[in-house]
């Protein structure tokens, strides 16, 4: 176990660009409709951010990668919605998740422009509200400023939380060789379980409505 951990820390230290790319990809994929509900991107960002205090990764590139990935993902989803209009909400793959689409529409109708901001912090609808906003005709000049503010706050919350967890472990006298793998693995495991439970409950609710 120790040798594998040293290899992991050494790999991240020597290939930090790959870690930054993974953070960018995690943030981007979380914004992709449906796929974003399946991938624990936030968990990956939290886990890798925990390596910042040890110097394996640096705070500014981690934040930049998370912000850029989320902005690009949300922006792409929004423009797909703008181009396809309402028909995208009843087309594959969204057609396989009518309950989630309905929840996203209800969320958008209830909160309006504010829904774009709030959805960033609500995992079930985070990956669907941007495309819904585009499909329902929200103007770009309203979407982008609100989305940018939400993404900035979301990225700061995730990256700083992960970094603080890593810093706390170091203050407790734990070296990265001791806390790195358990902390990263634990965060990823919790995030994966949470995603699995959410989808299990969603399918149960959907089956109950069909029955």
TrEMBL record:
This is DedA family protein. It is found in: Cell membrane. The chain crosses the membrane at residues 6-28, 35-56, 62-81, 146-167, 179-200. Residues 39-163 form the VTT domain. It comes from the Bacteria. InterPro entries: DedA-like (IPR032818), VTT_dom (IPR032816). Keywords: Cell membrane, Membrane, Transmembrane, Transmembrane helix. It is a multi-pass membrane protein. It comes from Afipia massiliensis. Belongs to the DedA family. GO terms for cellular component: plasma membrane.
């Amino acid at each position: 176990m120790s040798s594998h951990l040293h290899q992991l820390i050494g790999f991240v230290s020597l290939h930090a660009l790959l870690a930054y790319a993974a953070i960018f990809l995690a943030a981007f994929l979380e914004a992709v409709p449906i796929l974003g509900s399946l991938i624990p991107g936030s968990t990956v960002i939290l886990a890798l951010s925990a390596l910042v205090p040890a110097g394996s990764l640096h705070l500014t590139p981690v934040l930049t990668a998370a912000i850029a990935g989320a902005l690009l993902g949300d922006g792409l989803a929004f423009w797909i919605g703008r181009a396809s209009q309402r028909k995208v909400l009843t087309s594959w793959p969204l057609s396989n998740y009518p309950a989630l689409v309905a929840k996203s529409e209800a969320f958008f109708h209830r909160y309006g422009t504010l829904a774009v901001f709030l959805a960033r912090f609500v995992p079930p609808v985070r990956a669907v509200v941007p495309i819904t906003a585009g499909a329902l005709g929200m103007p770009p000049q309203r979407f982008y400023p609100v989305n940018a503010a939400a993404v900035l706050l979301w990225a700061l919350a995730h990256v700083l939380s992960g970094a603080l967890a890593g810093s706390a472990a170091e203050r407790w006298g734990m070296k990265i060789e001791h806390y790195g793998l358990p902390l990263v693995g634990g965060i990823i495991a919790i995030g994966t379980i949470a995603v699995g439970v959410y989808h299990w409950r969603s399918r149960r609710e959907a089956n109950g409505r069909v029955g």
